[in-house]
């Protein structure tokens, strides 16, 4: 759906290059898809055509963070805060998401914690804090964020997966298998495909429990879903080697 939207917005931007909204929506879609250079170019085009709201300036700052252009990103965030003092927590939340996407997990944690200090009821900040904390391998912080998350908003399936990551990171493979299995089962029950990460970590938890047949099946499903994922391929390769399935290991390479 996102790719389809990008194609439509690209056509619209070509047909009417001087229309701000075409570039704004295209920049937002590209940012969400991970095409940061093109997203930045379109957000800057929207700014030149202007006037635009703070959201477009935030897209620019988010792209700069994701591209590792920190000095420019910091200046962009500073300008947005000065221009829009009433939206500081939203700016910090988006900055945290950009840092998370860039793999800067500890910095992302600090950004999300700042949002929570400003607004204890900011539900999504807790969810993203859990994601960043898992990335930083601070599983106790992630567990705290997940508990707070559920107290405020109740059960969501992504939280089950994140709880599974915490259990796996702490070496509790039985609990991890149960949680990852629940996430996968809920997705299948709802008629949509489980996320490849859920299958991958389910396989890893099962491997830790010595359930090689089930583990290989889930590691294979994850790898089939994302053939470009190096982590998935590495794990599947090692699993095949350990299971003496050398002919399959060669195919992964």
UniProtKB/TrEMBL annotation:
Gene3D superfamilies: Tetratricopeptide repeat domain (1.25.40.10). SMART domains: TPR. SUPFAM superfamilies: TPR-like (SSF48452). Residues 11-81 form the Bacterial transcriptional activator domain. Pfam families: BTAD, TPR_8. This is Bacterial transcriptional activator domain-containing protein. It comes from marine sediment metagenome.
